[in-house]
Design brief:
Length: 335
């Protein structure tokens, strides 16, 4: 889908979606869904949303919408948290550098972060009943252990400019991208109607998402409750690394996720619900979605919301050195 057709859809009369920016809240090794209470978690994440985010996020200790005092998201009633892994550039000389993020089209001077979407069905349709998530709800999509990505909602776009859409790939682009790389995460939208979480953080949901903001398929009887279709777009500014003389000598693409995935197949994202009161349900019930009085804030106020890092470490880059650790030559990452 090209940007002009997307723009036309977004200007449609029904506007059956929310699209908004959430700036960076913190970048660190915390993961309260997959590794609750572990400080640090196994890899670095970039987190957006409400400032109640912490290492545990125990639902038994209350609704995060009542605990947060600010949010990096445009809608002040959205104190949810959204997070993904962090992208790094791995140079030919073995050094690593964190890839910066930049705001998506039409989001102003937002500090990093990502674009968040909530859809009822697609950009033009809002005729089905959609049930809001409940306090304590959480889910993930994708997994860092995946080595072959076949999920239609987990894709990449090699950006020719900030407006580029379409030509999505399952893995990292293999050539320099003139405007960076967009990572796309679509969450499932069919709920079992009972569980706010599950042991693997996925089984309480069922995926009928087809990707590309195409209307998802019908929910099965095992997961009959249609919930909002949540999607994330993260714009990674890889342009400063487009000099191929810095890329690996074999010509392979140089980007890796923070869990050391150089293919991109293990891309994943986490969602922890935190909308205030019935704000999201009211919005899902309205037509158009944006007509139901959601409160917004300025980009400057979004950027002012931040969270002091819990884990004190260098997350911006590191270099490789080879050391003998008793089992031959092992590659040791020193940051």
């Amino acid at each position: 889908m090209k940007w002009f057709s997307l723009a036309l859809a977004m200007a449609g009369s029904t506007e059956a979606y929310l699209r908004f920016g959430c700036g960076t809240l913190t970048v660190e090794r915390l993961d309260p869904i997959v590794e609750p209470g572990k400080v640090p978690s196994s890899h670095v994440h970039q987190i957006v949303g409400g400032n109640a985010f912490n290492a545990s996020m125990d639902p038994a200790k209350g609704d995060i919408a009542e605990k947060a005092t600010c949010t990096t998201c445009q809608f002040t009633e959205d104190l949810s948290n959204y997070w993904t892994a962090v992208m790094y550039f791995r140079a030919r000389n073995g050094s690593y550098k964190r890839v910066p993020q930049y705001p998506n089209a039409l989001l102003g001077d937002l500090k990093g972060g990502m674009t968040v979407y909530y859809l009822q069905q697609d950009f033009n349709s809002n005729k089905q009943k959609v049930t809001s998530f409940k306090p304590g709800f959480r889910m993930t999509v994708g997994s860092p252990s995946v080595t072959k990505n076949t999920h239609p909602g987990l894709r990449y776009t090699c950006l020719q400019n900030v407006m580029t859409r379409g030509s999505e790939t399952y893995d990292f682009p293999t050539k320099p991208c003139p405007a960076g790389i967009m990572a796309i995460h679509h969450f499932p939208a069919c709920w079992d109607g009972k569980n706010l979480d599950s042991p693997n953080h996925q089984d309480h949901m069922y995926n009928t998402v087809k990707g590309g903001f195409i209307a998802a398929g019908a929910c099965p009887s095992s997961h009959p409750v249609r919930m909002p279709q949540v999607a994330l777009e993260t714009m990674w500014d890889t342009t400063q690394f487009n000099d191929k003389s810095l890329w690996p000598a074999d010509g392979s693409q140089p980007f890796v996720w923070s869990y050391d995935d150089s293919k991109g197949s293990g891309t994943h994202a986490d969602y922890l619900f935190g909308w205030k009161g019935d704000a999201l349900q009211r919005t899902m019930d309205s037509a158009p979605l944006l007509s139901n009085g959601l409160k917004t804030q300025s980009v400057a106020d979004q950027n002012r919301c931040s969270l002091k890092a819990t884990v004190k470490e260098d997350i911006d880059g590191c270099k490789c050195q080879v050391s003998n650790q008793g089992h031959g030559l092992d590659l040791e990452i020193v940051c």
